[in-house]
Amino acid sequence: MYAMPRSILSKITATTTATLLFAVVLSSVVLATDTPKERTQPRPAWAMPFGPSEELVYEGEFTRAILRGINIAELRFKAQRPTPSGVTVEGETPAQAPLLLSTDVVSKGFFSKLFGVTFKFHAESQVEPNDFYAMRTTKKDEQGQRVRTSEAVFDQEAKTVEYTERDPNNTQLAPRVITAALSGPTQDIVSALYFLRTQPLTPGQTFNIAISDSGRVYQVPATVFAERKKMKSVLGKVEVVRVEVELFGPGRPVEQGKGKMFIWVTSDERHVPVKARLSHDVGQLDITLKSIQREEAQVAQR
To answer: Of 98, 102, 162, which is closest to residue 132 (Cα–Cα)?
Structure first.
């Protein structure tokens, strides 16, 4: 087996799942610092472009020096909009159930065999369907023998998020609990992708992303650019916009190292992320949409 330098290996194992997720998820998302007049409200739940159910499958390819096009992982994003509760109070409309969102990231292919790096990540998010903000997030992160489970509870009235992390392999260890302040409706790493798709994406827009992960709340700038050429994708040749996200630096999701991230999203009303590219000092990561399945039986497969 190839002996990867420990410094590079530690960076990959510690940041692979996060960078894979952020590369697809982060873009011009919710603006917690916008004034109410300027904030663009998400569509009502019945008009969501990914409902009533949808699954997106992506493939991540890693490139470093002479290592090109190594299949590193598969990512699956699922969205489901439950039907409203049948229990009602006279004179009131039925209560809407939260949107159920999930994502899975699994290492695969030659990369795992070559470097002995395996990881598996699962996250579930409950989202308020009208104002569209994260309500509760659960995660399970497995990197080799290391396993962590966590839960984040968003309290919009108290303007706080409480994050609790546990080590299931060491039940004697007290859970790590972090509480952070919220300045407004905030997304998690799963809901951000779907909130993005409810928004208009106009070239020239600059956004400040509000997103919470692992007990911290980040403000991440993002800018939307026009693309002249259509992009080849599993959906065919599609018109896209390109979003640059300032993911790296102090106070950002990836504080160590330098890098850039670009995301290409279809410019139609569905706003499907078809490709992302993450350049970092440990290498380049290309994430490409491989399939999309919707309840309406619209299926594209490469």
So the answer is: 98
| Structure token digits, residue 179 | 């509480």
Range of the domain at 278: 6-301
Residue 283 has pLDDT above 70, yes or no: yes
Range scoring the smallest mean pLDDT among 71-80, 89-98, 258-267:
89-98
| pLDDT of the residue at 46 | 47
Kindly state whether residue 1 falls inside one of the protein's structural domains: no
The residue written with tokens 């899975």 in the block is 104
Q: Are 107 and 72 in contact (CB under 8 A)?
A: yes
Q: How much is the CA Rg of the chain, to the nearest whole Å?
A: 19
Helix (H, G, I), strand (E, B) or coil at 113: helix
Beta-carbon contacts of residue 101 (< 8 Å; ≥ 6 apart): 77, 78, 79, 80, 124, 125, 126, 127, 190, 191, 194
H/E stretch holding 210: strand 206-213
What is the helix, strand, coil percentage profile of the chain, to 5? 10, 45, 40
Does the pLDDT of residue 160 top 70, yes or no?
yes
C-beta of residue 289 within 8 angstroms of C-beta of residue 58 = yes
Question: What domain count does the chain have?
Answer: 1
Taking CB atoms within 8 Å and a gap of at least 24, the contacts of 176-184 are 178/214, 178/215, 178/216, 179/215, 180/212, 180/215, 180/216, 180/217, 181/217, 182/32, 182/154, 182/155, 182/156, 182/212, 182/217, 183/32, 183/33, 183/159, 183/210, 183/217, 184/30, 184/32, 184/33, 184/210
Q: What is the pTM of this model?
A: 0.80
Q: Is residue 226 part of a domain?
A: yes
Compute the average pLDDT of residues 245-261: 82
Does residue 175 lie in a domain region? Answer: yes
Q: Per the domain annotation, does 160 fall within a domain? A: yes
